[in-house]
Give the backbone structure.
Amino acid sequence: MSKTITLRLDNETYKLFQAFALADNRPISNLIETSAKRHLEECTFVSDTEMQSILRDSHLVEKLRRGSLAARKKKGKLIG
């Protein structure tokens, strides 16, 4: 089920979204939704190439495994 939200934009930002939406022949709401979703996916997930690079680094993989085990046991410090 879709949800409606309110988004406050300054005039400059609105005009930027409006220009891109008009150029793409779609509503501003769709442009914002797809742009935000794409950004979240890029920030959240790694590409297949990047994942293969991570998995080839055995030292990194071991550190990740130890960290994951420590987190499951609620041991260690969370550094932010």
Observations:
- The chain has two domains: 11-44, 46-75.
